[in-house]
User: Fold this.
Amino acid sequence: MTTPSNVIDATVPDRIDLAALANQVELGEMFEELDAELVGLAPVKRRIQEISALLVVDRARAQVGLTSTPPSLHMCFTGNSGVGKTTVARRMARILHRLGYIRRDHVVSVTRDDLVGQFIGHTAPKTKEALKRAMGGVLFIDEAYYLYRPENERDYGQESIEILLQVMEDNRDDLVVILAGYSEQMKAFFSSNPGMASRVAHNIDFPDYSTEELFRIAKLIAEQMNYRFDAEGAVAMLDYIKRRQARPNFANARSIRNALDRARLRQARRLCDGWSAVVDREALETIRAEDIRASRVFTDGDDGR
Amino acid sequence: MRLTQGQFSFLPDLTDPEIAAQCAYALDQGWSMAVEFTDDPHPRNVYWEMWGAPMFDLKDPAGVVIEVNACREAQPRCYVRLLAFDASKGFETLRMSFIVHRPPDEPGFELIRADGPGRNIGYTLRPYAADAPPGRRYGPGRTP
Assistant:
């Protein structure tokens, strides 16, 4: 028996509640978590929201009988050092897993050394090994532009790139590849590897953090380590960030983390002075202004250590 | 004659998704998978050729299926089996072993009777395919 096409199938709903679908995968909760744990990074969060929205729309489309093909999710993260490329890549696996785009919540993090061999015939098995390990999850290639070394004609990086390209195409459902690197070098890398550029659908540029964002990061890191600033300490930290930003070799959040580690050392020395002090919990967790002001940034060092 | 060795060999051949599901089970148990092939499937031949190294630290069956397909393509006229090795203390042995590929034609085994002293008879098995030297069994194929 044939159904006339103007009769609507009763099992297909004509209206779909997108909000309910989004709740099913707990999207709102996930965004809150992201906002709480990642300071700033607006373009990154926007892209994650887009990908999540696509998932919801795809599910809705499937319900009304429209076809939906899984999107290509290979990504490229560019930005200066310490802006959170690696951190986001690690979180991305959890997010994509939660959204159901990848089967497993795991990231295999590799660099050039793990992919490129040292002699003829060494590269292919090495690259394939790394790819197989990452199957079902995310392959994160840090400093990806090192893969291609135009100055050395006999470099095996090209071979590795070719295998990567093939797997990125053939096993699109099994694997998400995330490349990361500094903006300039990645641009050069893509211009010499057009095949790679065309297969990476998402180019996300990580902006540098503002002073205020860096201060929030400092507080967040300190909190995670169970430290806190007293009032003057916070002022000193803000002051430190401003001065440190103006200096060369500023590596955003990484510089902040290092500064905090050094502040911890100074705090420990202050507490242990003479090995005779008795301390309470508050003293152990408080970073005071003097711990930060002792930094060379405030005197005249050249790298702020 | 259909070769029946290892798990699932009395069932119809496993499809790729079924193989992947079995691998997923093994990997979830923390076992590592290995692919092996042979053109000498005598039951006493426990030493099959290794197809690459055993795959330690895999998390997902997709990697195993890729290797199985690569082996099938390179050795279409061989038997290919998948092994799951349990490295945990107290086991340190295979936990799974099943055939994932067979040559197109399986002639089977000949039962050989050898007359001994008195009326004793010794029995042994010999694959019909073993008439040909290694590499040419089960039809023209590549050397293992």
Summary: The domain at 16-105 of chain B is CATH 3.30.190.10 (Ribulose 1,5 Bisphosphate Carboxylase/Oxygenase). The radius of gyration of chain B is 17 Å. The helical segments of chain B are 16-28, 61-74. The interface with chain A takes residues 52, 55, 57-64, 66-67 of chain B (CB under 8 Å).
